[in-house]
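Batch manifest, entry 17 of 40.
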Amino acid sequence: MGKRKNNVSGLSHFLAEAAKETLHPQDLQSAPSQTNAAADARTDTLDDVTLVDPRPSKKRALRTGLLGEGLEKYDATGLVPFYTDASQVPEHLQKYFSQRERFFSMYASGCLLDEEGWYSVTPERVADQIAERCRCDVILDAFCGVGGNAIAFARTCERVIALDVSPVRLALARHNAALYGVQDRIEFVLADYLSFARTLRDKRRKIDVVFLSPPWGGPSYIAGSPTKERPAPTLPDPADDPVAEEAHAEFSLSSIRPIHGRDLFEMTRGITRNIAYFLPRNTNLEEVSQLASPGEKVEVEEEWMGSKLKALTCYFGGLVAGQEAMFDE
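Output type: structure tokens
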């Protein structure tokens, strides 16, 4: 590149101005031509050398998200909104946001949920209770979502395999697990459970327990299954009895996704007899009892949060009290 002539700029201009400041005022008035000559001489000389900025260079700031420095590879900051105030939350998610600390006790530290995660994540205390019941070496969380159950399992099991078909939810689950410090105990797998289950049966990989928490069909599950309803019992008028429970139609296993809940269970039995099936609180228990083998017991645990029944966890195989001998079959 050619020299830039008749243009004193940058550091050259700074040095030229410094040269002027070394002269006395009377010298500037009596000998302007000498001053210009000195500046030109300095400028010509500087054009032939490499200039070094004397100012200290700024360190490039590390880009860290909600997880902080050292956990960048797990950080999903920016993938979904992180709400810190109710005014930021869409109206249809407001009631879930108000329960955020129930879902994740460390929510304020940076837990992330997508829209489906807000209404499908298992509350932390419930997840901890299920994890205690499912204590084992290797557990498969077939529909891990944003990681609520997988995080709890990582505290009671040696190894957790967490599956989901959504790369976004899997990234959020990994992010949340890192926030809780259990990411190294969880193997996150982007996969469809039905395909993964078939592969497991072929490879005979040892899985002690499978936790099934399949999609229930969104928040509308509480309305029950349109093809599987029975008349609601007569209840007191809520206006007369303020603590009366709201009646809901029964939820049928046929409403489970991606396939009929019965078929999902039977496929899982090809992996292990020890299954924890997480279902809506209004599930038809007659259908659940029919899943068990002849002579086998099913244990249904009600999951309460305060005065509200949230869900049911149905235990099969060696997870049932009194059937521990079935665990290793």
